[in-house]
Amino acid sequence: MTTAHPDDISDGTGPERLAVTADPTTQAGAENFPVALRVLPAAPRRHLLAIYGYARMVDDIGDEYVGDRIARLDEVEQELRGLYAGRPASERVLRDLAPTIEACGIPADVLVRLIEANRVDQVVARYATFDQLADYCTLSANPVGELVLHVFGRHTATRVALSDRICTALQIVEHLQDIAEDHRAGRVYLPQEDLDRFGVSEADLAAPRANTALRDLVAYEAERAAAWLAAGEPLLGSLHGFARLAVSGYAAGGRAALAALARSGYDPLPGPPKASKAMVVGALLRITFGRRA
Questions:
Q1: Residue 3: inside a domain
Q2: Is the N end or the C end of the chain the one with fewer CB atoms within 10 Å?
Q3: Which Pfam families does the protein's record reference (predicted)?
Q4: Distance between CA 275 and CA 171 in Å, rounded?
């Protein structure tokens, strides 16, 4: 499947669905969980924390587990599917997740996609095109937004398609922030077609500071992420109450991160440019009151 432009979307009535991330790799979504959690009622906060714990565990296996990571991910999937078959889980994180699955009606495939993203990370370290990277995001980040919609009982095909746009944007931003770290880990999430277009080599990614060509490339990818984020923000108008506040928190985190990246001169190599709390709150207020950050 290809996803070259964020405006390629169905009306949600047919079998097709926009397939485009994030976090959140899971990571993209996880970065912004605190924004959503602080003011939420106990029940959705508890569910989001359970989802975060699961996403973090799967991500840590994919990034840090010492041993056969794919085999370990297979074990987690088997135990997860066991929950749906009525078998108790031995993993504490999955035991904590079980009440959320039941209360929110979360289908197994959404959670399994996060596992699959980490399987992909074990065998794919480069992406030739943006479409390929966006397809990866259907596994690594888009499920996070879908899970949030389930938590608030607002899951529809149209909302999921819009959420996918936001999550893809968040994943792109996170990749831009972590270019140096990812490169040290042997991964490059900048599409090869864009590296070639801007004349950026992989050696440039290992430098202490970004050269002009890399800065231009990062600015280009940031502009692309901003377009995906804007294309998904109509989702907010379909939500109300705490659901809208939570999703607005994710979008605000993305906008603030883009602002921090711009403030760094689009040079993430010395260290990931991070948005301050004030920047996130400011972006949230602008989104809430209808002014574009």
A1: no
A2: N
A3: SQS_PSY
A4: 15
